[in-house]
Design a protein that fits this description.
Helix content of chain B: 25-40%
Low-confidence stretches of chain B: none
Radius of gyration of chain B: 17 Å
Structural class of chain B: alpha/beta
Mean pLDDT of chain A: 90
Strand content of chain B: 15-25%
Largest sheet of chain B: 7 strands, mixed
Number of strands of chain B: 9
Radius of gyration of chain A: 31 Å
CATH architecture of chain B: 3-Layer(aba) Sandwich
Shape of chain B: globular
Number of domains of chain A: 2
Helix content of chain A: 40-55%
Low-confidence stretches of chain A: none
Number of strands of chain A: 12
Strand order of the largest sheet of chain B: 4-5-6-1-7-8-9
Oligomer: heterodimer
CATH topology of chain B: Rossmann fold
Number of domains of chain B: 1
Largest interface: A-B, 19 and 25 residues
Number of helices of chain B: 6
Distance between the termini of chain B: 19 Å
Order of helices and strands of chain A: HEHEEHEEHEEEHEHEHHHHEEHH
Mean pLDDT of chain B: 87
Number of helices of chain A: 12
Shape of chain A: elongated
Chain lengths: ~375, ~200
């Protein structure tokens, strides 16, 4: 570099580096949070494909549908689910505690553990294993006065004909999961028991399908819908089924990304300022160079080249620092607010795009100072002390 | 060797800047090597300055971030003709007696040495004219004498035209021509009785 001002150049490189690092940190945290929520919705509730019916309930045999799906090589497992709301009560320390409008989910315990990770959230006791066992979400257990494994809970459900159906269950487990997408506010029972109570024998509310390659979700979904043209099935990929829950997060991430890009723009302004300082600090030298024959173009090239070096080093260091942070977040299984583990991934397209954008911005930011440098008149510039 | 003399503010440096194409005349023309330089555009003026003119400034005006050798090579690099450049620069450094300072930073040498480097830089492209603006104005009298003798010997050795602006012509002794600027006019000679109007 012809004009050696290490301090200023390090400052400019740092500005680019920090701009990129902010974008990487934002991406790791906020995209990681978004992906973690998608992961949990998929793992606990919707699978990679969620099948429902236009008429609210699927009356086709759940076994035949599960078998149909499990013949597809991309499908790992499928399982039916049925949902309702219940009133619950239990006597604890001689006191009757009642809770209303508790979501209740019926599962096929043998299939559910293959297609969902809800069973893994049971951190006390065991998952639903018989027709009269119930798993309570940790918040439901708390609201029922501190229900524990082995306690007896009375559950009331209104069936399809408006009749109250009451049964007594034994608490087999308490479920707790970070992130709020699990079944902490829900109770889980055997699907056949729930069908009996709802008077919906053979019906399912939904079918969740877990794929071994989630990128094939759309393909499998379309194949399913084409295969059952006369039914009123609705099949949705995780992006479609969780759209409402994710819409807010998408806007949030877009805003955070914008903040990141504003940070990058700020670093571009920092480069403009630093390059202008270099031009002002080296006015006499520019005048000398012009006097001994340097053309305006030569001066322009010097400062643009300087901008390219700033951009290249800044993009390189910033990307390396960002990748280092991403690696750290992935290896330490970084969690959001000490609860939800982030889903950290390397998005190479975005990483390259960020590095290239900051490199180009550094060059663009150097254009005006370079232009100013070319406009200096040799005689006047040489008089500068 | 041509001296341009005159009192302060008489326009010596302005005349030199116009000859050096660092300034443009408001009217009139400047011919160098038969070329009307007032018709040249900015790019051609830069090329002309680089190839046909050498500059020695009062404060040497070396680039302090570069070494002595790099400073001397600069006009050649701008010209884009690097063939034999380093050998030529080393020869010039030897001629000005600074071959042992070749890799020193320009801000690490004395004022007299810096001015000798500036002379070498002014000569590296073998210009038609070397223009020097008060080349000894910032030096003590002993160093000034050394610089003057060096310029004289280089002018003789390389058969090089030097046009030097100075207010102290005694230092230079015998020269080929003296031009005096007085009251906005140029005279040949410096003794009032012998002065002949030339412009």
């Amino acid at each position: 570099m012809l004009f050696n001002k290490k301090g200023s150049l390090i400052g400019a490189v740092l500005a680019v580096t920090i701009g990129i690092l902010v974008i990487h940190v934002n991406f790791v945290i906020f995209q990681g949070l978004f992906d973690a929520i998608v992961r949990d919705i998929s793992d606990y509730r919707n699978g990679d494909i969620l099948v429902t019916d236009d008429a609210d309930f699927i009356d086709k045999s759940d076994l035949s549908l599960v078998n149909w799906f499990e013949r597809i090589p991309y499908v790992e497992a499928a399982t039916p689910r049925l949902s309702s709301t219940a009133e619950m009560n239990m006597t604890k320390n001689g006191k009757l505690i009642e809770e209303t409008r508790i979501p209740i989910v019926g599962v096929d315990p043998f299939r559910d553990i293959l297609a969902s990770t809800v069973a893994q959230t049971v951190n006390d006791g065991s998952y639903v294993f018989s027709r009269n066992s119930i798993v309570l979400g940790s918040n439901v257990a708390r609201d029922l006065g501190g229900a524990q494994v082995g306690d007896s809970v009375k559950v009331l459900i209104v069936d399809r004909y408006g009749q109250d159906q009451i049964r007594r269950f034994t608490v087999s487990g308490i479920a707790q999961s970070p992130g709020g997408q699990g079944f902490d506010y829900t109770a889980v029972i055997h699907i056949d028991t729930l069908r009996d109570m709802m008077n919906r024998h053979g019906d399912s509310g939904s079918l969740i399908v877990k794929l071994n390659d989630p990128s094939k979700a759309f393909e499998v979904k379309e194949f399913f819908l084409r295969s059952f043209p006369n039914d009123d099935f609705i099949a949705e990929t995780i992006e479609e089924s969780a759209e409402q829950q994710l819409a807010g997060f998408r806007s949030g991430i877009a805003m955070i990304n914008m903040i990141g890009y504003f940070g990058m723009m700020s670093s571009a302004f920092a480069i403009v300022t630093i390059q202008m300082m270099l031009v002002n600090g080296k006015t006499r030298e520019i005048g000398v160079m012009r006097a001994i024959g340097a053309k305006r173009k030569d001066i322009l090239i010097i400062f643009i080249f300087q901008g390219m070096i700033i951009g290249a080093i800044g993009a390189g260091v910033g990307t390396a620092a960002g990748l280092g942070y991403t690696f750290y977040a992935k290896e330490t299984k970084m969690s959001f607010n000490n609860s939800l583990p982030l889903e950290v991934s390397y998005n190479w397209e975005k990483i390259i795009q960020t590095a290239l954008t900051s490199f180009v911005l550094a060059i663009i930011a150097s254009l005006y100072p370079s232009y100013r440098a070319t406009k200096l008149l040799p005689v006047e510039a040489m008089r500068t002390v | 060797m041509v001296l341009i003399v005159g009192s302060s503010g008489s326009g010596k440096s302005t005349l030199l800047n116009m000859i050096g194409l660092l300034d443009r005349p408001t009217n009139g023309k400047i011919f160098i090597d038969g070329i009307d330089t007032t018709t040249l555009d900015d790019n051609n003026i830069s090329s002309f300055r680089n190839k046909k003119l050498g500059f020695i400034f009062q404060f040497s005006n070396l680039l302090t971030d570069l070494s002595v050798l790099e400073n001397i090579l600069l006009p050649r690099q701008i010209a884009g003709t690097n063939h034999t450049a380093e050998k030529d620069a080393r020869d010039l450094l030897k001629a000005v007696g600074l071959e042992d300072q070749i890799n020193k930073r320009a801000n690490k040498i004395s004022g007299g040495q810096a001015q000798r480097v500036a002379i070498a830089r002014g000569l590296i492209n073998n210009p038609s004219i070397v223009l020097a603006d008060e080349p000894t104005g910032n030096l003590d009298s002993v160093t000034s004498d050394t610089i003057v003798q060096l310029m004289k010997s280089m002018a003789k050795k390389l058969n090089q035209t030097f046009i030097i602006v100075t207010h102290d012509k005694q230092h230079f002794g015998d020269v080929d021509k003296v031009i005096t600027i007085k009251d906005g006019r140029a005279f040949e000679g410096d003794q009032p009785s012998e002065m002949k109007v030339i412009a």
